[in-house]
Amino acid sequence: MELILQKNEILDLGNKPLGLNITCLEGCFWLTQTGDNQDYILVDGQKFTNRRNGQLYGTALEKCRLTLIYAESKKRPPIMEWLNCHG
Length: 87
Prior knowledge:
Layout: E1 2-5, E2 10-15, E3 20-33, E4 40-43, E5 47-49, E6 55-70, H1 79-82, E7 84-86
């Protein structure tokens, strides 16, 4: 699935299964996860793969375009089952 977020828009992914890939195609996206002491800043072409349990959320530091896909299956999960996007 591809998403376009405007600057300061929040993306709340909730608790996701391991293996979710988030790729920043353009722009800048800040990402954090409960239980992880490290935050992540994704810019053009950078990818984050969810490897731990915990709520996953982030903010567009500038307008950005993201893709979200599960690594194991390469299937895109139905949006209403797992995506909560807040502006």
